[in-house]
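ok so I'm stuck.
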Amino acid sequence: MSEDPFNDWLNTCEAAARAGGEQLRAWRGRFETREKGVCDLVTDADIASQNAIRDVIASRFPDHAFVGEEQAAEATSPRADQFAWIVDPLDGTTNYVHGYPNYAVSVAIARGQEILAGVIYDPLRDECFSAAAGRGARCNGELIRVSTTATLADSLVGVSLPARVERRSPDLVDFVEIVQICQAVRRSGSAPLTTRIARIPSFAAADAVTRA
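replied:
not stuck anymore, here's the structure
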């Protein structure tokens, strides 16, 4: 490892995310799908991606905790002072299942409540978005930044909604409210990639706002 832990963490985030992305590409068209909740899917590809990510991280940081989207609910939570890798091996599973080309792998490292570094990898476009505390954000090594749009009325807004949205859901109420005061709304089905709209040339002045 180098003398710069942030560099090591970012390199590991990217290597792990790319390994997960390789599995997603490999499993296209030959996976089985199951429901882990109402309208909430999981596939063989999710599991294969998470296992690949875990292997990369464990080979470099064997003493760190691992928190994966698809791990058992009874898994032990990391201690407050412990480094923990937080992973979503396939964000946009419904898109993936239906062949809609918009999904991503997310890998981050945290300690306590502080996110130290993270990567979002789009395996179809081979775009790797990375960021570390105090070091800005990049896409494939190129520095990126938020748009200069200052008001919601002039903004193109990216939103994310839960897998199942009830008629009176607070998320749906917020959605209706934001539609009325912004320029336009887009929902991509993969929250990590929602901010891509701010990088599309025709939307260069747009804001991308994601809701966790």
